[in-house]
User: Fold this.
Amino acid sequence: MKIKLILLFVFFYLGSLITTIPASLITYFVPKNSGVEMSTPSGTLWNGKTTQITYDKKYNLQQVSWKVDWSALLSLQVKLDLKFANASEALSGNGSFLYGLNGPLLENVFIDLPAAQLLTYANLPLPVEVNGDISLVLKKASQGAPYCAQLDAFIVWDNASINSQMGNVDLASANIDVSCENGEIFAVSQQQSEQIETSFNASLRKAGAYQLKGLMKGTDKLDPSINQSLSWIGKKDNTGATMVSIDGYL
Assistant:
């Protein structure tokens, strides 16, 4: 009887130690040459938070929190629910990271950010200003060869507009559906406003080969200088839309 009580005490004691492992231990597992830097986490390894995670001293997530979903263990998976919010009217999002017998999986990921924030990550040859809000909804994604095993996502750009030295373009709203087929990534884009209408099909194939095909058609409300520049991009079809065809390698 005493042995059973001792074993029961040891079991609960070890369980208590495991569930209270401090989140600060995570920093010891981040490789020093990975480019990832994390402010000191608080909470536990299973339910914690940190004020900032930075990659390559350029990309950062703020107010990051995580929580382990223990119910996923019933399906032989480890599930981590993540949230982050850089600031009001800035990059924010949430979603789940799972790891099981079939490898890592992202599920129900939602990311919202101002379109202007994307330009901070781009090195464009000409000054361009973009406006609006971009929302990414990733229902499911897992890695495969060459790029994905499964991918189901869509992107919405609301109140979209582009301002440049050539003129301003009101895009209204643009929608992009992203999918995976035989390990390759495909995207279909549709956009329509009073000034311009566009539709594109894009693909990223093996060995970094990419292809973009589509149509662009401006109306009489589009800035004349921009409407004229569409003729430089490609030939027009029988509806007057400019045909776009670009391919190459990353």
Remarks:
- Residues 11-17 have pLDDT under 50 and may be disordered.
- The helical segments are 2-19, 115-118, 224-233.
- The radius of gyration is 24 Å.
- The chain has three helices and 14 strands.
